[in-house]
């Protein structure tokens, strides 16, 4: 006889559904927000009011950023398979990688690894100089390895990502501005002298730092970015049904493509 498969998430019988040890219909529906439930499902604990405010701010910050590749992929998939909303949504989510959406995880991991490399004790919350020392070591490590610093730079918001200062303020007000966000801010202060140019602290990186300060492991952070972007993609798909852009994108691309025979390409 095999051992039973164990879960602490949910179960059901003929008359009830249990989720996280609570009665879904009697204790959760209408009483718990979706954001609170998402936090609870992953952390297996209910968030405080401050934690929930920061968490939901992160989800809002990551929900949409316009006609990004993920949104275009979702729209074009719907163009080819209008009966498959699930396929179109999945197509958009599959593009969440190192350039888009994955920065949330990459930055959270970079900050967590940098804090672990420094060890204890960490500087006091107001000791900017102490945080700058840790940040400088982290940025130098990335530079010496020939790698980009996650959370720095943005293709659109060259002068500053408008999400970053708002998320920092909310975390401060909520009492969750912890070591990851403080190190992230320090990276913003020290990197110009090391890299020779000034780059904005992007919102995706700030979200990764904020989630890490809520206690989530780096491996989970991209999942939250995808959770947020699913809402944005669903909005794009609803708009695509009302006002299609996919067929026009396809026509423009088709007209712009020039066939190059393999022999010419090789030469």
Write a structural description.
It is built from 13 helices and 3 strands. It is mainly α and 267 residues long. The chain folds into 2 domains: 99 residues, no CATH class; 116 residues, Cytochrome p450-Terp, domain 2 (Orthogonal Bundle). Strands 1-2-3 form a 3-stranded antiparallel sheet. The protein is globular and about 55 Å long.
Mean pLDDT: 95
For the record, the CATH architecture of the largest domain stands as Orthogonal Bundle
Kindly name the structural category: mainly alpha
Strand content: under 5%
Largest sheet features: 3 strands, antiparallel
CATH superfamily of the largest domain: Cytochrome P450-Terp, domain 2
CATH class assignment of the largest domain: Mainly Alpha
Helix content: 55-70%
Descriptive tags:
mainly alpha, single chain, 62% helix, 13 helices, Cytochrome p450-Terp, domain 2, 267 residues, three-stranded antiparallel beta sheet
Helices, strands, pairings?
Elements: E1 10-12, E2 17-19, E3 22-23, H1 24-28, H2 34-43, H3 49-62, H4 69-80, H5 85-94, H6 102-118, H7 128-144, H8 163-174, H9 179-195, H10 203-213, H11 218-242, H12 246-256, H13 262-266
Antiparallel strand pairs: 1-2, 2-3
């Amino acid at each position: 006889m095999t051992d039973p498969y164990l879960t602490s998430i949910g179960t059901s019988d003929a008359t009830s559904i249990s989720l996280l040890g609570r009665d879904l219909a009697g204790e959760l529906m209408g009483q718990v927000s979706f954001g609170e439930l998402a936090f609870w499902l992953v952390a297996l604990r209910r968030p405080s009011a401050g934690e929930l405010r920061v968490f939901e701010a992160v989800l809002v910050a990551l929900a949409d950023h316009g006609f990004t590749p993920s949104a275009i992929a979702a729209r074009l998939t719907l163009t080819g398979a209008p009966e498959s909303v699930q396929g179109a949504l999945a197509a958009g989510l599959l593009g969440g990688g190192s350039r888009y959406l994955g920065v949330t995880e990459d930055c959270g991991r970079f900050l967590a690894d940098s804090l672990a490399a420094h060890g204890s004790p960490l500087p006091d919350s107001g000791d900017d100089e102490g945080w700058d020392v840790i940040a400088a070591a982290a940025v130098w490590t990335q530079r010496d390895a020939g790698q980009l610093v996650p959370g720095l730079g943005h293709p659109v918001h060259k002068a500053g990502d408008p999400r970053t200062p708002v998320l920092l303020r909310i975390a401060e007000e909520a009492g969750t501005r912890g070591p990851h966000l403080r190190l992230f801010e320090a990276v913003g202060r020290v990197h110009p002298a090391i890299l020779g140019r000034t780059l904005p602290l992007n919102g995706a990186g700030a979200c990764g730092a904020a989630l890490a300060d809520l206690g989530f492991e780096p491996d989970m952070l991209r999942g939250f970015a995808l959770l947020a972007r699913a809402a944005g993609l669903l909005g794009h798909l609803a708009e695509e049904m009302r006002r299609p852009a996919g067929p026009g994108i396809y026509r423009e691309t088709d007209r712009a493509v020039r066939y190059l025979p393999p022999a010419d390409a090789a030469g």
